[in-house]
Specification:
Elements (H helix, E strand, L loop, with lengths): L10 H19 L8 E4 L6 E2 L3 E4 L8 H7 L4 H7 L13 E4 L3 E2 L7 E5 L4 E6 L2 E6 L2 E2 L9 E10 L7 H9 L19 E5 L3 E4 L10 E3 L3 E2 L2 H10 L5 E5 L3 E5 L5 E5 L7 H4 L12 H7 L6 H10 L4 E3 L6
Parallel strand pairs: 6-15, 9-13, 12-14
Antiparallel strand pairs: 1-8, 2-5, 3-4, 6-7, 7-8, 10-11, 10-15, 11-12, 16-17, 17-18
Length: 321
């Protein structure tokens, strides 16, 4: 399992996107700068962190969407959801992008690490703050776990990778050969750091310049290398880890403002995975159904948010004048 595609792209489109991003990595590298960890103050009353902003693609040269995503601690899926119609590989020069960094905190226990697969984000609660990091997750058929509570079992710098028999078969079918054990080093698909959770899975780095915000792994959680190094140095063994499947997040603040954040649900079968997933149905929880009935909610705004699935925080009861 130790080995992360977008919930709004078909498998074929996802593979094409990944290969195109890889081919353009060197082109974009001239523009790259270090991303800063998205870390926010947190207390028991915090329901939302971050702020949305905008970014204009340069009018000359080549700027990939992956480059912009990495700058702002986002995955590709986050930018694609918030900017429908924009080329997911190389946006048109001069395009203004929405940078969706505002996020509702997941509706679960705010302790340790929370992995919310549909939004392609990992939350780490510690020391009166919360870190929000973009992730890549498992392909259909080798899915990242959902609705699972476990803990950090151990950590390893410079991990090796031992492919399973199934992985060897997959690669042989593509005309590729895997080593019995992939040695440690920068070319290792697990990157330079690994945090092992449960017995079969890991949170780890990558040897690629793409894949964050996509379904590309064999079930593990993939992070950019700076992010996994940060977690490796700060997450103790024994830390609680929870995996959730929450494409819809809702919240109400102390002033009575009602919010929703809607992402594409994860495809659960080939038919859903091959239809661009725009029509993947939601499975509302009882709590969500009750929330939607709140008398102060503007139902038109609610339906628009559920239809657009932009991954952005939406105020459902704006003041009316």
């Amino acid at each position: 399992m130790f080995n992360a595609f977008s919930p709004i792209l078909s498998e074929k489109a996802s593979r094409t996107l990944a290969l195109s991003c890889a081919a353009l990595a060197l082109t974009a590298s001239a523009y790259q700068c270090d991303a800063h960890a998205a870390t926010y103050p947190y207390d028991q009353n915090t329901i939302m962190v971050g702020q949305d902003s905008t970014y204009q693609i340069e009018r000359g040269g080549t700027t990939t969407l992956e480059f912009v995503a990495a700058q702002y601690q986002l995955g590709l899926s986050n930018l694609i959801e918030a900017n429908p119609g924009v080329d997911p590989i190389v946006p048109v020069n001069g395009t203004n992008l929405i940078i969706p960094q505002k996020a509702l905190l997941p509706n679960t226990k705010h302790e340790g690490i929370i992995v919310n697969s549909p939004e392609m984000r990992l939350y780490y609660y510690h020391d009166d703050q919360v870190d929000v990091l973009p992730i890549g997750i498992g392909q259909l058929g080798t899915d990242t776990p959902l609705n699972w509570v476990t803990k950090v079992e151990r950590k390893r710098a410079n991990p090796t990778w031992t492919p399973t028999a199934k992985m060897h078969a997959e690669y042989r079918a593509r005309g590729e050969t895997l080593p019995t054990v992939w040695p440690a080093g920068p070319d290792n698909p697990m990157g330079l750091f690994a945090i092992y959770i449960g017995r079969l899975y890991a949170i780890h780095g990558t040897n690629a310049d793409f894949g964050i915000g996509l379904r590309v792994s064999h079930g593990c959680v993939r992070l950019r290398n700076d992010d996994i190094e940060y977690l490796f140095n700060n997450v103790p063994v024994g830390t609680r880890v929870e995996f959730i499947n929450e494409p819809i997040k809702t919240a109400q603040d102390s002033d009575g403002n009602l919010y929703i954040e809607v992402h594409q649900p994860l495809s659960m079968n080939e038919e859903e995975f091959e239809t661009l997933d725009r029509n993947v149905p939601f499975k509302f929880t009882k709590e969500q159904e009750e929330f939607f009935k709140h008398p102060d909610i503007n139902q038109e705004i609610l339906q628009q948010a559920l239809n657009e699935r932009s991954g952005r925080v939406v105020l459902l009861n704006p003041a009316e004048f």
